[in-house]
Every structure is written in C-alpha cells, then in structure tokens.
Amino acid sequence: MTGVESAVGHGTGAGTRPVLLGVRHHGPGSARAVRAALEEVRPRAVLIEGPPEADALIPLAADEEMRPPVALLAHAVDEPGRSAFWPLAGFSPEWVALRWALDHDVPARFIDLPATHTLAWGSQEDAKTPEGERPLDAETVAEEGDTGSAALRIDPLRVLAETAGYDDPERWWEDVVEHRGAGEGDALAPFTALEEAMSALRETYGSGGHDRDLVREAYMRLQVRAAQREFDDAVVVVCGAWHVPALRRKTTVAADKALLKGLPKAKTDVTWVPWTHRRLSRSSGYGAGIDSPGWYGHLFSAPDRPVERWLTKVAGLLRAEDRIVSSAHVIEAVRLAETLAAMRGRPLPGLSETTDAVRAVLCEGSDVPLELVRDRLVVGDVLGEVPSSAPAVPLQRDLARLQRRLRLKPEALERELELDLRKENDAARSRLLHRLRLLGIAWGEPAASRGSTGTFREAWRLRWEPELSVRIAEAGVWGTTVLSAATAKAEADAVTAQGLADVTALAEHCLLAELPGALPTVMRILADRAALDTDVGHLAQALPALVRSLRYGDVRGTDTGALAEVAAGLAERVFVGLPPACAALDADAAEEMRSHVEAVHQAVGLLGDAPATGHSRLRGRWQSVLRVLSGRDTVPGVIRGRAVRLLLDDGELAHDEAALLMGFVLSPGTPPADAAAWIEGFVGGGSGGGLLLVHDERLLGLVDAWLTGVPAEAFTDVLPLLRRTFSAYEPGVRRTLGELVRRGPGTGAGATAAAAGTPGFAAGLDLERADAVVPVVRLLLGLDDVDENTNNDLAGVTG
C-alpha cells in the first residue's frame, strides 16, 4: 500500500486518519509539495491554518483581480488598531491549497483559533506578538518575555539545521526541501519525513515555549474531527509543520474543549488587504519567516533553469542602472554559482552561491550594486491587489475612488511626486495627501522639491505600506469619506490640543488640506487660546505657523481674513512681551529664545508683505523691538548679537554702527563668556556670518583682537562656544578667514588684501576683472549675444 493509500484509506475516504501536510509558511518547496500531494490525494475538503471568520472570503481568492501577496486582516470593531494579519504570497503553501480547492470545487475552510479570541487575548501589545500579528508563522520564533520572566521559545528549523550540521537554517531548508523533488514517486514522502522530525522535537521540547499553541491546536483538532465526520475522513490539513504532531496526538473532545473554555472575545471584522514582499521579510519587522521573498517567488515561478533565469534577471537590473553587464558575464556567473554549489556539497546553487557569483562577476567585487540587487530582487517591492468586491469600511472605498480619479495608484516602491498647485488635478492630489496625513494615514510624506521652491510647488515621497489598511480602519470612526473624516478629526484635535502651537499647526493643516468645515472651529479655539496664553515663547512658536497658513491660503484661494487678524494681534503681543521675557535667562533658555527671535523675524517679514493683513507697520514695530534687544544689558549676549545681525541684514543698521556695537561688547570690561555668546549670536547659527567676516575685515579685526586678549584662565571656558560658532562655516570660508587672520591687520581691509595678492579683496571694484565675467553672466541669464568688444560693467548687467 502506498503512502497515499495508507493516509486516506481505500475508495472515497474510508481511512481513519486525515492527511496532515506540515509546511513552512511562505516556502516555495512546501508549496510545490502541497500541490503535488493534493493532486495525488484528491481530498473532498481542504482545511487550512487560518482564522475561521475568513471562510466567507475564500471565494474572492479566485477573483481575477486578486493578485498575491495579500493578507487576511482581522481587526477589533471597537478598536481597529488592535489587529492581526495572515500574509499569503503566491508561493505560500496555504495559498496554493486555497487555489487548488477553488479550482477543483472542493470546500476549503480555515481551522485556526478564531480571530475573535486572538484579538481579545491580552492587551493590544499582546495581540501583536507572533501569535497575533504573524499567526501563520508559528515555527519562526524568538526569545520573548513571559509575565516578567524570560521564556525560551525554540526555533524548530534552527534546531533541525544544527542537528544536520548546518549553521544556517535557511540553507538547510533549501537543501532538504526547496532543491528536492516534490515527493518523486510518493507525494507524501516529504511530509512524512518532516512530521517525524517535528515529532522528535515535540517529544523533547513539548510546546517549546509556545504556550498559546496548545490552545490553538486544541481548537484545530476539534475542527479536524468535525470535518472528518462531514466528509468521511477524506480531508487534507495544511498547517505549520510544528503543529502536525499535536494534531496527530489522540486526545478527548472534552479535554480539547476544556482548554478553550473561558477564552475572551472581541467583535471582529475580517477582509483581504494588499501585502508586499518587503513585509514578508524579517527585516521589515513583521517577521513572516523568510529573508528573501523575491528569491523564493522566483524559485516557485521559474519553470526550469532557475539559476540561469535569476542571473539574467540580475543582469537586466544592473543594465538598467547603467552598469556594463554582458551575456558573457551571465554565463560566467552561472558557472561560478554551479562550481560553488558543487564545492559546498549542495544539490543546486542556492541564494548564497548566486549572491557570491553576482558579487564576484556582475558587480566586480563591489557590495554597492549588490545591495541594490538584494533590495530590488532578493526582497523586492511586489505589491499585491485585492478585488473591489472585498469587504471594506466606507472610508476605504472613498479613498479607492479618489485614488482612481486622481490617478494616484498605491505602489510599494517609494517614489517622488512633484505637484504644481496651479493645476487642478495636482491641487486635488495635494489636498488628498494632506487630509490623509491629518488622519494619521502616512501614505505620503512632504519632501524637499528639486525644482522651484515657490509656494505653488509641493514635493511628496509616496510609499504604500500594508499597515495603512489598519490606519484606514481606525480613521473610519471619523467619517465615511476622506473629507468628512478629516474635518471631524481636525475639529476634535482642536478641542483636545494641549498648547497654542498645536492649534496653529492644526490651522495650517486645515488650510493645506482645504477643510473649510473645520476652519471656523479651529479659528475660534485659536483666538481663545491666543487671548489667554501669556507665555511669549508659546506665542512666538505659534506665529510662524500662522504666517505660513496665510501664504498657503493665498495659493489655494482660501479666505484667510480671520487668520490674518489673529496673526497680526499675536505679533503685537509678541512685540510687547519679548523684551522683558529675554531678561535674566540662563544659557539654554537664551539659546531657545534666540530661535524664537529668528522665527518671529522671518514671520514678520512675510506677514508685513501679506495683502491680507493690511499691517505694513508691523515690520517697523519689529525693528524697534530688535533695537531694544540689541542695546539692553540684561538681555543675554547671544540674543543681543542676533538682534544686531538681523538689523544689519535688513539695512536698518550701518556697518559702522554694527562695528561700534561690537567694539563695545568686545571691550575689556565685558566678561569673556558674554562676549563669546554675543559673537555666537552675531555670526553663528548658519546665518552667513562667516562671509560677513570675510568681506568686512574691520569686524574680523575686532573679533581677532578680542580673542587674542582673552585671559588664559577664561579662554578654556569660551573655546567650546567659539569652536561651535566657527566650525559651522563652510570649509572655503574657514580657509579664507584663516588666511586673513594669518596675515594680520594692515592699514585697511582693502590694502591688506591687495598687498597679499588675495583675489577679490581689492580696495574697490576691479572693472577689468568684472568685464571678464559679463559674457558668462549674460549667457546664464539668456540675454542677447554678447559683443566681446563692448565694455560692459556689472551694473549694466544687473540693471
């Protein structure tokens, strides 16, 4: 009698025991073996490890729109963030069994512990343990804490690999399963051998630290018994190999039911969601049990000569990246991979052999292109698809409709998206992405634009991750459409906001997302918070966001009159409260206040020019505040120095006056630490202070003279601050400053530079040298052809 006959009995299932196919989840070798076994056994029912609540979703696996990798997502109805995934790739044995059953009109059922218990078992963090978030991968485990004590959870594959003399369980699995034939004469032979190995492990280690598996296995035994009665024992069970000995063990129904008594429950919803190969890899944090989903997918789909086809695929990727790879390279890489496999005693070249061959031949020993191969091919960015008929919350359906209308297809591969807000479709895309961010659905993240930096341009970095399906389910409590949900969420966030800056940031988000329904509520709360908040730091933090909101409102054509009034009033309160708030601050508080001063300065520059404000006098008021800060002794030096610099940059302070103020501060009567802080505020912080010192040697001379006169006992204290100030300059600026200081002071800045022969430091404008660059400048500006005999000057070009 063959193995098949002994397993299922004679005829239509007269046997006494089910066929248990122990597999490794997401293993192409296991998938091929399962398919071969099903073809041989021809069962009347297929039972698969998975949540029974998903039985009604099984027919969708045959839908032509369904493209693995996909996952079953179960989430608690009252708490969508508590969720569990059951990922399935095209090379997963469970998926192969599911499709075989559908193709042959055989009933298929999931028999694992229901998700209603899985999600309710413990806290949300407990639901995201391997049993909750990756229940299909019970044989891939790690050490975890159990009620405060470390419970060792064995990895069966690692134990078997070490027993066989392998130091890598992945390589052992490839040799004994992936590179072997599927049963060769006996389709059940691989499963019989694996069951014997797992039985030995279970006898030695028991549950191996997987205490919840005992409950899951009790439930699965009950389901198998019920299916045997219904289908006359002609059933096949596809489950993790670790569970096979437990399902084979003879127990009483009463004992199994006793283990299930009193389990907590949670109302759950289940649906199909897209998954990615990247999420199947351990490095993603989801730990689905495989390091190389792209490689496994290739092994499963390649009809023949998998190594040759794989290396051809690698060559195509490298050629697309402008690397020189010829057919001869591919042939040599194949030979090397086969030679390495023979030397290592392997039946076929595995991933390690092909990787070594790719590095040596196609990448010429470099790991840089090899990392690209690993990212794009070994792991991969394949994104699955689910049919539109799959159950989904209303918010998910509205988002899918918007994605189709705006031609924004979710993709697993990260990509850049440049938007021109003057175009209707791009503006709509921007609104959608901002609304999703407000809902906590981070499909897109703002990025720095590589083109124009104007307010009409936006750049996004898009990447669709499977867990966004959970975020969508969570956000569904706010509304049935993206617009209504974002509006409700913004209003709720405004009510619960902790500080004024939070409300102003929310107002900015409302304008970016174009939420006119939420803006009145946000503005009312913003006005109330601004009127009650007396902390100048809070007010200064809030003002920049308000001003940005005004600019974005202009771009999007939004009425921002009320926002402008609040911003102007907030600015006035900052002007009044800032000078006293800057008095008697320690070093850390002074540095923080300096950042507030800089932010307010930038905001006032924009606010004073904004047509919606009608307050052009704000700039004059702010300059008066800066003058007060620059001359008040009780204000820390770093703030006084920054105030002087801001006035100088705005043309409100002459260079002579700035030099005079610096001279006062750097006089012997000023404590060295305060003088160093003033220098930090004046020329530090990435404000272009290095170039200022390069082009005004009077200021550089003052700093140099002060520094050389600092007493030795104080020099050690001020050195870290000065190093921080000057180390922020560009290397070229530092070299020029060093050269100027090395030469020492002369009769004048221009005379000193000219005498030293330093280009560009003459006393006046060198017309001859200026004329030499005019043709290039005109060419860059796209002006008319240049007459080289014409004596142009720079003033004529810039005019």
How would you explain this protein's 3D organization?
With 799 residues, the chain is α/β, with parallel strands linked by helices. It has 37 helices and twelve strands. The strands form four sheets. Strands 1-8-2-5 form a four-stranded parallel beta sheet, with helices on both faces. A hairpin with a 6-residue loop joins strand 3 (70-76) and strand 4. The termini are far apart. Residues 1-15, 123-151, 283-287, 747-762 and 788-799 have low confidence and may be disordered.
What average pLDDT do the residues reach?
Answer: 79
Write down how many β-strands occur, each being a DSSP E stretch of 2 or more residues: 12
CA-to-CA gap between the ends?
Answer: 100 Å
Largest sheet features: 4 strands, parallel
Protein name: DUF5682 family protein
InterPro entries: DUF5682, LolB
Organism: Streptomyces massasporeus
Brief synopsis:
With 799 residues, the protein is of the alpha/beta class. The strands form four sheets. Strands 1-8-2-5 form a four-stranded parallel beta sheet, with helices on both faces. It has a three-stranded antiparallel beta sheet with strand order 4-3-9.
Question: What tags apply to this protein structure?
Answer:
alpha/beta; four-stranded parallel sheet; three-stranded antiparallel sheet; 12 strands; elongated; disordered N terminus; LolB; DUF5682; DUF5682 family protein
